[in-house]
């Protein structure tokens, strides 16, 4: 058996069921080996799209994503999506064929490339092919993006270590008992505790909910974990730039803030202004290197979020309700305020629609009413991104995919395709700007080929709106970032999609008809949105530059 065959078989035995990519000579055999073992191959139009598909698939499915690309330019074409995945700590394996001869036109420094974007690098050896492939998959399953180097000469060599199984378990939990007594004491002393759960807490809804009930905490999340506590009466939704006025008010009066798997970056804390200076701040993370990276914290607890929460629950006084019975803020009155004002839909605004454009808030609220509750919302980057992030509800944490770790425009459409492959039972909604759509429209070919239920909503302001609203007020010329109005639905139809242009709420009728079924072709909505002003989250973003 050749090494490429061993690698494909081992990855499938470890759990790889879907692989995204573009096939060339360097990855032909390993991709075919995966398919022969039983994996599904999804052919993308471009390696950049394939990388984002694998990323979106992994985030939505909760399993390891697999990307297969050609050597040299196949790898570099995928680099932006790979960087987003690495910065998001997406569990993903990149099958990267490797030309090892320095004078080869395909040669690139793969280990250096991986290190430069924060990914792990592993390399397959002929003498240990099964061991190396399995180790790469298990590293990804622990939360890493792994570039797996497949030297061309090694792939075709006879494997000296045949694959025989069984598959080793993925070890994620630390054997060290977390030290939780200081955290327990802080929870007992607090009267207005708030939990902010981040990316590292996406699988910890149940223990964090029980712990919050035990100590009277309110629940909030970073944008990367939106939906984690959906349906909970004490859920404030996203902290930071996307926080509702009520959420900002309540977090701003907390006496204890516990960050669970969140580094409390500038987006989550509004550059540190959201959390009051008098609050005790605790950070819980499996990686001690994450402690205090974005702001000072008063107390740290090293350990997996679930393990720490359960350890605290084991020590919590039996039947204790902490702040609930001691003057805390879990009162019927506050529960009613959260019900009445805890969503952006309840916050009044002045509709800025005109005769030719629709207010993006009005558009998004109308879509939220039309769309089925079982949905996956995928957000591209750009001036528009707050509207779908705040006005569209999601059913759970798997229903929200936020491609913002690298802040690259143009990843959302392909990420949505990966999410749709992961959850075909749900409607997948790709929210993109017109700039990001034009960058990534080539993957509509893939969307049509897959015939997945996909709704693409373009917030079309005929500009790179972030730059318009940031530089325009200072009098800078904007010709480089503004464009003629373009019929983007005509482009979508050319790829084989259905399309509709929306300037008013009444124009959404075709969306309602498409939703009624059978949804065998993607629908692209070119929403001509009003662009009278910038957004407060945009101001936050540029403060970080």
From TrEMBL:
Start and end residues of each Thiamine pyrophosphate enzyme TPP-binding domain: 400-526
Signal peptide: none
GO cellular component, one term: acetolactate synthase complex
UniProtKB keywords: Thiamine pyrophosphate
InterPro entries in alphabetical order: DHS-like_NAD/FAD-binding_dom, THDP-binding, Thiamin_PyroP_enz_cen_dom, Thiamin_PyroP_enz_TPP-bd_dom, TPP_enz, TPP_enzyme_TPP-bd
Gene Ontology MF terms in the entry: acetolactate synthase activity; flavin adenine dinucleotide binding; magnesium ion binding; thiamine pyrophosphate binding
Residue intervals of the Thiamine pyrophosphate enzyme N-terminal TPP-binding domain: 1-100
Named cofactor requirement(s): thiamine diphosphate
Protein name per Swiss-Prot or TrEMBL: Thiamine pyrophosphate-dependent acetolactate synthase large subunit-like protein
Organism: Micromonospora taraxaci
């Amino acid at each position: 058996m050749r090494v490429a065959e061993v690698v494909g078989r081992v990855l499938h035995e470890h759990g790889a069921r879907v692989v995204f990519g573009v096939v060339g000579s360097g990855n032909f055999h390993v991709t075919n080996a995966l398919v022969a073992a039983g994996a599904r191959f999804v052919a993308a139009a471009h390696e950049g799209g394939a990388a984002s598909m694998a990323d979106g698939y992994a985030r939505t499915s909760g399993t390891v994503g697999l990307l297969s690309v050609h050597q040299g330019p196949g790898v570099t074409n995928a680099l932006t999506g790979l960087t987003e995945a690495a910065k998001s700590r997406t569990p993903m394996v990149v099958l990267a064929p490797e030309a090892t001869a320095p004078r080869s036109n395909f040669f690139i420094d793969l280990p250096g490339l991986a290190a430069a974007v924060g990914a792990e690098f592993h390399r397959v050896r002929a003498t240990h092919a099964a061991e190396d492939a399995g180790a790469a998959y298990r590293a990804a399953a622990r939360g890493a993006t792994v570039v797996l180097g497949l030297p061309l000469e090694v792939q075709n060599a006879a494997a000296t270590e045949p694959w025989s199984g069984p598959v080793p378990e993925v070890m994620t939990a630390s054997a060290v008992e977390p030290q939780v007594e200081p955290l327990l004491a802080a929870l007992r002393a607090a009267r207005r505790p708030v939990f902010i759960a981040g990316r590292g807490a996406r699988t910890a809804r149940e223990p964090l909910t029980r712990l919050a009930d035990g100590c009277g905490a309110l629940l909030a999340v970073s944008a990367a974990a939106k939906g984690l506590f959906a349906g909970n009466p004490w859920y404030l939704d996203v902290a930071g730039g996307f926080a509702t006025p009520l959420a900002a008010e309540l977090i701003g009066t907390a006496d204890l803030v516990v960050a669970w798997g969140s580094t409390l970056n500038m987006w989550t804390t509004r550059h540190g202004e959201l959390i009051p200076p008098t609050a005790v701040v605790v950070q819980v993370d499996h990686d001690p290197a994450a402690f205090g990276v974005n702001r000072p914290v008063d107390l740290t607890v090293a350990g997996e979020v679930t393990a720490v929460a359960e350890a605290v629950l084991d020590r919590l006084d039996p039947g204790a309700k902490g702040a609930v019975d001691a003057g805390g803020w879990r009162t019927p009155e506050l529960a009613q305020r959260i019900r009445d004002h805890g969503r952006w839909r309840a916050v009044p605004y002045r509709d800025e629609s005109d005769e030719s454009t629709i207010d993006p808030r009005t558009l998004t609220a109308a879509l939220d009413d039309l769309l089925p509750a079982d949905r996956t919302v995928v957000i591209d980057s750009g001036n528009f991104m707050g509207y779908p992030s705040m006005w569209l509800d999601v059913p759970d944490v798997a229903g929200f995919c936020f491609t913002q770790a690298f802040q690259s425009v143009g990843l959302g459409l392909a990420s949505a395709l990966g999410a749709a492959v992961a959850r075909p039972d749900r409607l997948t909604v790709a929210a993109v700007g017109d700039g990001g759509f034009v960058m990534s429209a080539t993957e509509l070919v893939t969307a049509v080929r897959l015939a997945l239920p996909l709704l693409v909503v373009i917030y079309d302001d005929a500009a790179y709106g972030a730059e318009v609203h940031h530089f325009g007020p200072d009098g800078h010329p904007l010709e480089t970032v503004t464009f003629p109005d373009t019929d983007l639905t005509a482009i979508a139809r050319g790829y084989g999609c259905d399309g509709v242009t929306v300037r008013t709420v009444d124009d959404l009728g075709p969306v309602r008809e498409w939703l009624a079924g059978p949804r065998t072709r993607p629908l692209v909505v070119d929403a001509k949105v009003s662009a009278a002003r910038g957004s407060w989250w945009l101001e936050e973003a540029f403060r970080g530059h």
